[in-house]
Amino acid sequence: MSSDTPARTPHAFVADARKAIYRVIAERRDMRHFRPEPVDPAVLRRLLEAAHQAPSVGYMQPWRFLRITAPALRERLHGHVAAEQERTAQACGERAAEVQRLKLEGIRDAGEVLVVALTDRRERYVLGRRTLPEMDLCSAACAIQNLWLAARAEGLGMGWVSLFDPEWLATALEMPAGASPIAILCLGHVDGFYERPMLEQAGWDERRSLDELIFEDRWGSSGDTLKGEQKGE
Ligand SMILES: Cc1cc2nc3c(=O)[nH]c(=O)nc-3n(C[C@H](O)[C@H](O)[C@H](O)COP(=O)(O)O)c2cc1C
User: Fold this and answer.
1) Phi and psi, residue 177, nearest 5°
2) FRET label pair with 57: which of 103, 128, 170, 195, CA 20 to 30 Å apart?
3) Which of 30, 139, 162, 182 to mutate to test the pocket of ligand 1 (most atoms within 8 A of CB)?
4) Closest ligand 1 atom to Cα of 102
5) β-pairing, 112-118 with 157-161?
6) Sheet holding 157-161: strands in order across?
7) What is the tens place of the pLDDT at every residue in 26-67?
8) Domain ranges of the chain
9) Cα-Cα end-to-end distance for the chain
10) Which residues pair with residue 161 across a beta bridge?
């Protein structure tokens, strides 16, 4: 590889637009604290359009979005997630008390609660999934990330809740056999965004150094091609 700095491609966005995309990536947070104001339905529609533009294996578009509007159903979801948090705490051994204290969802407070599910009959889609059937899940995760970033750009917070039993949730939402929920999303107005991941602020874990996560040619090699490369711009 040449050490010369390559010229920027003519297809690049203008500088401000490039900055905006890196900014939204850096300032997206998983949110658990919400204000009660409702989400404008037009904005919600835009966010779902953003989600639906995600890449998907074999173009299968496996995502389905269920908007939770019935208050009693939202309460049931909250009760189920609270019980699952307790079970998770018990499974975390010596960190149980810490997990009990963590705020891991905002189901009661968020303006919107959405459940994202993988559709049923996914076995019809083989392209790109013969050896890696879980690529459907990866595709739906891409859609959720699109939604997450678009929400941040719109000034709305979003939290991904995965503390639930998928079978329980599928039954509660009357999903067909084979469909599988992968996320409860809390979406809404916030007082502000956490400056750092909340789990980092709470002392749960830290962001690893990128340099430790990049290998060259073989697992574990500490190639130095990209080491210390600055963000530029
Ligand atoms: C697949 C997935 C599932 C997650 N499930 C939960 C969850 O159940 N509860 C929660 O509080 N955060 C959950 N999170 C959020 C992570 O805790 C969060 O992304 C991580 O701590 C980094 O923080 P950040 O998203 O603000 O950068 C989940 C994130 C992902 C990607």
Assistant:
1) -55, 135
2) 170
3) 30
4) 11
5) unpaired
6) 63-68, 112-118, 180-188, 157-161
7) 999 999 999 999 999 999 999 999 999 999 999 999 999 999
8) 29-194
9) 22
10) 184
- Two tokens at 70? 């019935």
- pLDDT recorded at residue 1: 47
134-153 pLDDT, tens digit each: 999 999 999 999 999 999 99
| pLDDT recorded at residue 227 | 76
The two counts, helices (H) then strands (E), for the chain are 7, 4
Using DSSP, state whether 92 is helix, strand or coil: coil
Nearest CA to ligand 1 atom 20: 197
77 CB contacts (<8 Å, ≥6 apart)?
Answer: 68, 107, 113, 164, 169, 172, 184
Q: pTM of the full predicted structure?
A: 0.95
**From the CA of 193, how far away is ligand 1's center (Å)?**
14
Fold of 29-194: NADH Oxidase (3.40.109)
For residue 231, pLDDT beyond 80: no
Ligand 1 atom at minimum distance from 81 CA: 8
Q: Provide the Cα torsion 209, 143, 61, 177; round to 10°.
A: 90
Helix, coil or strand: residue 116: strand
| Cα(39)–Cα(128) distance, integer angstroms | 36
Cβ atoms of 51 and 65 within 8 Å: the answer is: yes
Q: Is the CB of residue 162 below 6 angstroms from any atom belonging to ligand 1? A: yes
Residue linked to tokens 């699109």:
146
